[in-house]
User: What shape does this take?
Amino acid sequence: MPLTVAGSSAAAIGTRSRARDHRLAGFRALFSISSSDLDEVLRYSQVTLTTPDPDTLARARAASVLQLAMRLGRLADEEAVRRVAAAGGPAAGLRTAHTRLFPHVALEGTRPSEIARRLGVSKQAVGPLIDELCAMGVFERVPDPDDRRAVRVRWSDRGRQAMLHGLGVLGGLERELAEALGDGGMAALRELLVRALERADAWGDGGG
Assistant: This one.
C-alpha cells in the first residue's frame, strides 16, 4: 500500500476514533454516568444485539401466538388456492398474490389506492393483480359514486359466486381442522378469534 494511502487511512481512523470519544464524553456528561458504567452498558448492548442462534429464534417464534396465527392463515390460504385451481373454472389461475387483495375489497367496491394502502404497497404494485382478477371475471371496475373521475374495484357477479365457492373450500379445511381440535375446540377457537379481531380492529383506528 502506498505511504500516502496508508497515511490517509490512518488519519481517517484517528478522526473517527476522536469523534467517537467525543460523543461518549458527551453521553457521560448528559447522563452523569461513569466511564466504567458506560463500558458495562456498551458491553451489554453488544451482547444483546448479537444475532440469536437458530434454537432461540425458533423458540421465540413458537411462543408468539400471532406468528402461529399468521402461519396457519398462510397455510390455509395456500391449500385453498391449490384446491380451487384443481377444480378448474374461471378462477383456476388464482394465486395467493390475488387472494391477499380479497379481504380489502368491499362488496360495494373499494378504490385501488385504498386497497394498496391497506396492503402497505404502492398503487402500481396492486394494479397488475387487479387487472388479472378483472380478466378472470372475479373483479370489475365501476365508476366511484363519490367521484366520477375515480373508479372502484368491486366483486363481479361471477366473483361473488367464486367467493361463495371459496368459502365452501375454507369450510372443508375447517372441518379437517375440527377432526384434530374437536367441535368444541373449533367453536372455542372461533370465539377467541372474533374477540381478538374486535380488539385488533382498534389498531387500524389508532386505538393503540
